[in-house]
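Quick check before the chapter quiz. The format below is the same one you will see on the exam, so make sure you can read both the input and the output lines.
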Amino acid sequence: MTDNNDPDKNEITVETASDTLESKKETRNDDLLKEPVSLVTKKKHHYLILAGLLVVVAIAVIFAITISTMSVNLNFPPIAGVSYPYTTTYSVEMEEGVAHEIGGIPIVFISVDDEIFLKVGEEKVRMEIGEKKKITERRAKITTLGFLVFDTNFMILAQYLGMSDTDAIFHISLKTSEQVPGYLMDRILPADITAVPV
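Here is the expected output.
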């Protein structure tokens, strides 16, 4: 026969129930604490992505403004006494009787036998096959947003190699006081002439 009046057994049952309730409360409290931390982490992650996108957009806008306001001027007088350590030589074909612009200077020529007669700007030049002459010496500046970003002296030498049908073939040597970026080279030797590095 079971004795229901045993105080020790009742006490154990009460303590066990109490422990279970406390354990459930702690579990709920832990869950409540974990949930907000997870939300905060997600929000931080979204803010970081948004901040990264804004930085990329800002850089792209600044780059676009810089490129759109870039100005190249090839018509400054050269600085005296500057050396020309950088040289690039191109094989160039130019059509007879057609004005071509090299280094910002219009050049037109006619051929007579083994000679050609060039009009380089306002100057007239006579060249024989194999002869090399200086075409121009100037200073180029690149500015953007009102700031000077590149400055170099440049000298152009031309060597006449002969005719091919109606085209004269030259070796054009571009000498510069600074290493020239590609987009400046494109302005000095524009796309309307066939220029191949040699």
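If your answer matched, good. Residues 75-197 form one domain.
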